[in-house]
Amino acid sequence: MLQIYDSLSRSKRPFRPVQPGQVGLYVCGMTVYDYCHLGHARMLVSFDVVQRWLRASGYQVQYVRNITDIDDKIIRRAVETNRRLGEVTSYYIDAMHADERALSVQSPDQQPCATEYVGDMLDIIGKLEQKGLAYHAVEGDVNFAVREFPDYGKLSGKTLDDLRAGERVAVASSKRDPLDFVLWKSAKEHEPSDTRWDSPYGWGRPGWHIECSAMSKALLSLPLDIHGGGPDLKFPHHENEIAQTEGAFGGTLANNWMHCGPLMVDAEKMSKSLGNFRTIRQTIGIQSAASVDGQPASGESAEYEVNPREAEMLRFFIVRNHYRSAQNYAPDNLIDAQLSLDRLYQTLQNCPPASGAVEIDWQAPQAIAFREAMNDDFNSAGAVAALFDLASEVNRSKDPALVSQLKALAALLGLLQKDPVVYFQSPTRYTRRAIEQGSAGSAPASAAALSETEIETLIAARAAAKAAKNFAEADQIRATLKNAGVELDDKPGGLTQWRRA
Prior knowledge:
Largest sheet: 4 strands, parallel
Distance between the termini: 41 Å
Strand content: 5-15%
Shape: globular
Number of strands: 15
Strand order of the largest sheet: 4-3-9-10
Mean pLDDT: 90
Helix content: 40-55%
Structural class: alpha/beta
């Protein structure tokens, strides 16, 4: 039976959906003012694995991941770039979808935008005001009265006294209490006209937290079976969601809370100020990366050419760790991830799968280990270990049926679905050789690599040398290719396959 670690109860519990056989999964998505970064990649991939396993387990899943398309940061980006709000959000939504496709992240069933649910947000604010949980401040904002909600802090474990003790800034004059948070922001004269809505409280826009209360209630019945997000959302965002939703409607917002662990870069929190901030497209894109400040060059497309080998490496790097664990994006870890994924693809290249449709044999030992791992709080690390055990068996037996099982199980993690030839003919920055040459994390992987045409020309020259019994020249060509990071594999019948090491 599936067990899930619940962040609120701080315990692992059997998963029992409200409606047997059906799952309502709500995950907090992106604020679309910038390109998605590596922390977003972890959230996207982790919950993609969750929804894949829920579906594979026979559940009917309604997966909702929202898009924040109204926010102070978006407004600042629109003003800075002299564009309308919708232009900014449309561009970065397209860029986000490009990142999802690159990482083989399946689209959620619904991806609602906050601006589509302003009316629902105002309805909730009205309910909170009627119950004495919200008040209209003098400056026009509407705030949530935190001290009127007795359970505030139950998700994060923070008490009101702890929160007050941690205050470092003076309370805004519009708030009765420093802990109160905004539900509705009154419009300012200098703000663009497309960033405001009419309301009973005057022209303004919703606060950030209220949008998820509105969209989860509108699209999924309460309580949600699973509510998820990144580690930085537990407080204050998810804490405030609980206060808003449960304050307005009573009952429970979600029966299970899931939070990814942090993704660090060289053991430091990723930050533009530290110079270790990396977007997804910088990490796996073939063309030169977009600027770190997130502003696209003139005419730059939201789409980009993806290196398929590096993209799957990044997904594998994320999946082979448990979603709740801390993860460190560092050169040695990336090299190890690339080498490990290469070994699995080498198995597929050496042993083609059986033809025809494949049903997973859940009685096979590796499949049993895979299922047990995934049912233990989506332990993808254990599931990946089962894939390597199965790959070892394939390498011993050369059984095409087992290769098919390997691909079918890996598909549940979004892995090993590429043609091995295409995979290995893609260069990668994430090898020891590339790191030593100083190309990792900077120049595109294809910049210093031999082109496919150059490789094929050298292979043809080697074949001609062998035919002429000039084995010294043939060996020299092989050595030249090896020095360029290209390995050759001579097959029966005179065929030579090549791959980038």
